[in-house]
Amino acid sequence: MESLPIVDFSSTDTEGTASRIVHIMETVGFLYLDNVPGYNLEEEAELLEINKWFFNLPEERRLRVARYLYNKKNKVFYRGYFGLDKDYSSYKEGYEFGQDSVTSPGYKLTSNEGFPVTEENVWPEPEPSDSQEEKERYAKFKEVVVKHYGRMMSASMRFLQLLAIGLGLPETYFHHLFVPETLSTLRLLHYPQRGFEPPPSAIEDGQVVVCETHADNVFVTFLTTFNYTGLQVLLHDNTWLTVQPRPGSFVVNLGKTLSESTGGRIKATKHRVVDPGGERYSLPFFLEPGYSAKVPLSLPLDGKEENDVKYMQYGPWLLENMKKYAEIKDVLKLFEESGFKKEN
User: Fold this and answer.
1) I want to staple 268 with a disulfide (CB 3.0 to 4.6 A). Which of 124, 179, 220, 259 is the partner?
2) Topology of 6-338 in CATH?
3) DSSP-derived 3-state class of residue 273
4) Per-residue pLDDT tens over the stretch 101-114
5) Which residues are registered as beta bridge partners of 251?
6) Cα–Cα distance between 128 and 147 in angstroms, integer?
């Protein structure tokens, strides 16, 4: 295989597109998705611009919206900015946000269940002394990322509908897992060039990686790679496919949660990012159920009845799996140590 398969999201052949998506996810597990509504090269350029703008802010300003792990003055633990760790195989910094009253107008948590992973977002704010032009950049940043979050929610939910159709399930089978509450995350990423010898853990079969080999935990990932290389996908023959940039398209893959519910029929394909020899930016969106969502451990496929399906609550499962990732593994421990309590 020389390239990922391509799916046209604008196709009017619903059944054919659904069938093709399922076939690709049963075999390769990754695809290019073209013609996502509301997304084009102009939108992509704007996203890259605000991504670079944020990570070019002075460190002191980025730390104002950092997680407690990086700034003990802040009482955010899951959302916000996370910094670099030169001793970890993954060498990246990021800024994350998810659902709150800004990204989902009218949204309001009905309880504290799941806090801090259900906490409100933190947004970079200008100084009173900043120029009007700079203040407008802060406002533009928020406007662009919130708009993209909404776009990604719509596109990923439609993708799940097509996947359901292709599996022979009702089109809206997965809908209740994400509406009205979702833990879905948009993550701005910056991979700076290492100016030092990488740790041994960053060497994989002779390649230097800036993000180690892994499979996503979530339901669906939509990735904007901009025009940067580095992403590699592990194929079934145990060889690595280098994913070439495809401007205006998304790289889409599925995660362990969905794979396990199909008994492995749908692939949660492993992937990594090798050192591209310079800095790199990317923008993944992770579609995740709500904290209280009852996720099916198996789907009613191949003659299985709906009443035979067993379920798990997504939030506790997510918290357990978070321990594997350096940037969020200590969320609960730090939350407990901080003495911070969210008010009702």
Assistant:
1) 259
2) Jelly Rolls (2.60.120)
3) strand
4) 788 877 766 555 67
5) 32, 223
6) 26
